[in-house]
Amino acid sequence: MIVKARIEHQKDFLFMEEIPDKYVPDHRLSEKSITIKDAPVGIKNYQLSTNGLFLVHSEMKFDGPARILTEVEGEAITCQFIFSNKNGSGTAGKQSAKYGRSRHNIRYIPSAKEAYDVKPDVEFIYFLIVLSKDYYLRLVDLYSPLHEQFVQEMEKGISTSFAEHDLFMTPEMRRSIEAIITCRQDGELKRLFTDARITELIMYQLEQFSQHIQGGRESLLDRDIPKLEEAREILERDYIDPPTHKQLSKMILLNEFKLRTGFKKYFGSTIYDFVTRLRMEEAKRLILEEGKNMYEVGVNVGFKHQASFTNAFKKYYGILPSDVRL
């Protein structure tokens, strides 16, 4: 398959790669970085490819309107992840940009040409995984009910998506993407690591698609999303002593019901689970990196009683905090 993309009226390609369709487990990875500065577009690309796989991470800034032209020759399955922020609200590559408006989907694309209009004064982070049919079918369970319609359309050569509308990205997906683009391994270790993280990322996508189907297709209101982002920022800052739902709803000017349901739909996690994850990840870091004792760790992540911390840690990780160093 051949995958390529460029900005309309620009001579340089964002990427243009010919990828062998056959999945070869021990084939080496090829990496490259490309920077394009040609007003009104500024783009920084990291690309990785091997048999059956093409991956690109793009940081893009548009000072004026632009159109992205894409083309796929041959069958491909794409996992697309898009983050966007208004210029000035964050810097591409920094945490604020990564946690801006986000969406994702899985698509099957037979040979096709498409065009996407992008708005000016917007920063985009675009993470794209392109898999050959052979590669994808080795990763997923074709007989899962969730896959049935997708595979049927794919076998007919009909362009299709897992979700009718793109879904919001979860924190787990963001962490998997971050792990892929910051991996410091090389050679065989990097290939194994990349394969594992891609499988993990697709698993998170399929998990959310399944929840979306079971929970209905109600969409969030655009005006509520900045408030949910604000709620996340507050919880990340104050997770040691987080506000109650009632307090948080007043802080972001959103009623409690919309806060609870919207937070879970947008971030793929309840508020309680989100705070628990932040506490447990920090607890593990304090144990491994700072060597703090269990009492200090519990206090530092917001637990008043040692037993409560120990129980919460074991429930989250499946082991006692004292066993982490073993």
The total of helices stands at 11
Which residue ranges are poorly predicted, with pLDDT under 50 across at least 5 consecutive positions?
88-99
Strand order of the largest sheet: 3-4-5-10-7-8-11
Biggest sheet descriptor: 7 strands, antiparallel
**In the residues, how many domains can be counted?**
2
The helicity comes to 40-55%
Strand content: 25-35%
DSSP, total strands: 11
Determine the mean pLDDT.
84
| CA gyration radius, whole angstroms | 21 Å
GO molecular function: DNA-binding transcription factor activity; sequence-specific DNA binding
Pfam families: HTH_18 (PF12833)
Domain HTH araC/xylS-type: 229-326
InterPro entries: Homeodomain-like_sf (IPR009057), HTH_AraC (IPR018060), HTH_AraC-typ_CS (IPR018062), PchR_regulatory_protein (IPR053142), Tscrpt_reg_AraC-type_HTH (IPR020449)
Structure description:
It is a single chain. This protein is α+β, with helices and mostly antiparallel strands and 326 residues long. It has two domains: 2-215, no CATH class; 223-323, Arc Repressor Mutant, subunit A. The chain has helices at residues 95-98, 133-139, 145-155, 171-181, 187-215, 225-237, 245-252, 256-267, 271-290, 294-300, 306-317; strands at 2-7, 13-18, 30-38, 41-50, 53-62, 66-73, 76-86, 101-109, 112-118, 122-131, 160-161. Strands 3-4-5-10-7-8-11 form a seven-stranded antiparallel beta sheet. α6 packs across α7 and α9 (271-290) packs across α11. 28% of the residues are buried. Mean pLDDT is 84; it is low at 88-99.
